[in-house]
Amino acid sequence: DAGVIQSPRHEVTEMGQEVTLRCKPISGHNSLFWYRQTMMRGLELLIYFNNNVPIDDSGMPEDRFSAKMPNASFSTLKIQPSEPRDSAVYFCASSLGVGVNTEAFFGQGTRLTVV
Amino acid sequence: SQELEQSPQSLIVQEGKNLTINCTSSKTLYGLYWYKQKYGEGLIFLMMLQKGGEEKSHEKITAKLDEKKQQSSLHITASQPSHAGIYLCGALGDSGYALNFGKGTSLLVTP
What is the mean pLDDT of residues B29-45? Predict the structure, then answer.
């Protein structure tokens, strides 16, 4: 398996523009997570999907952020409108199940810069 | 909520030296994960510890979880440039399904 695939790897956009980040989880994994990494706050969980259903979106910063998982092999994280403070590395991770003894596999991340 | 404190924040060691990174939790750990992140890349799983007193090794990296299950250490023996990166400890949060992470320890190994 190619692992968790994220695209694009890098995104530079102007403030106010819409940004869409994409993720393809590992085939067969039923749990998907979106994280955001910044120097100040480290890795923060944004949203968790189980079997394509959003279970916990309490980490989504505000209404400008939305995430979807239309099927088991694809998820998107959208920011509209984007702001400079959204600049960060966004990671997608997937796992087979959740809980102790479950390993989460991370994608390479999307480095977002909003200017 | 559970907080994970890592120390030190950054470390520069000479190749061949040993080093230790610590991770301390504000709550009892029911699964402590160590990941490594190469600069500009994703997280790679290293080890998971579950039981108090447990110790696991992979090549030259050894991780331990203390008996009280509130502190873990990662020890690298005879460090090499390939060990450079950011080491993150993670633990299941109160939700039981997602990992909370420490802020990471940045390691640089000099020749």
Answer: 91
Q: Tell me how far apart the alpha carbons of residues A71 and A52 are, in angstroms, rounded to a whole number.
A: 6
Q: What is the pLDDT of residues B51-83, one digit of tens each?
A: 899 999 988 999 999 988 899 999 999 999 999
**Distance of alpha carbon A25 from alpha carbon A22, whole angstroms:** 10
pLDDT tens for B85-107 read: 999 999 987 777 888 999 999 99
Chain B: nearest CA to A43, how far in angstroms?
A: 6
Backbone φ/ψ region at A61: left (φ over 0), alpha (ψ -120 to 50), beta: alpha
For the ranges A69-73, B5-9, B91-95, the lowest mean pLDDT is seen at B91-95
Contact A33, B92 (CB under 8 A): no
Dihedral sign (CA B1, B7, B9, B15): negative
Chain B residues touching residue A56 (CB < 8 angstroms): 95, 97-98
Contact B101 A105 (CB under 8 A): no
